[in-house]
Amino acid sequence: VQLQASGGGLVQAGGSLRLSCTASGRTVSIYGMGWFRQAPGKEREFVGAISWIGGTPYYSDSVKGRFTISRDNTKNIMYLEMNSLKPEDTAVYYCAADRGLITQLGHEPAYWGQGTQVTVSS
Q: What's the confidence (pLDDT) of residue 55?
């Protein structure tokens, strides 16, 4: 499985961005997909995740109510819609996939994209 993240950029606080993660390869093996982020000098942080076959997305408390994860199974794309962005959302965002569910406290996902930079200016 290969994952390609895109859509990052520079935005002012309060603005919005939409990230995309395109999966290719043996996508039939994917059950869960998710987003993580890593800010400079900080550990990687879970953002949210979704089951590839349905179900409600779930999020970390830090982004709940502002970020929305969705997917388009026909195109093998997962999206992260980010609204009301804050400077503390600045990070490299990574998409991930796994044969099982991706959770905040779960195992390390098996597949990772290359990351896309999101910078929120104050």
A: 76
pLDDT, tens only, 4-55 = 999 999 999 999 999 999 999 998 888 999 999 999 999 999 999 999 887 7
Distance CA 67, CA 72 (A): 17
Give the Cα-Cα-Cα angle 105, 19, 41 (nearest 5 degrees).
Answer: 55
> Do 65 and 57 form a contact (C-beta atoms < 8 A)?
no
Strands 2-6 and 58-59, sheet pairing: unpaired
Neighbours of 73 (CB within 10 A): 12
**What does the mean pLDDT of the chain come to?**
95
How far out from the chain centre does Cα 2 lie? 15
Q: Is the separation of the CB atoms in 100 and 30 below 8 Å? A: no
Q: How far is CA 84 from CA 8, 21, 23, in A?
A: 15, 21, 27
Instruction: Report the DSSP pairing between strands 111-112 and 45-51.
Output: unpaired
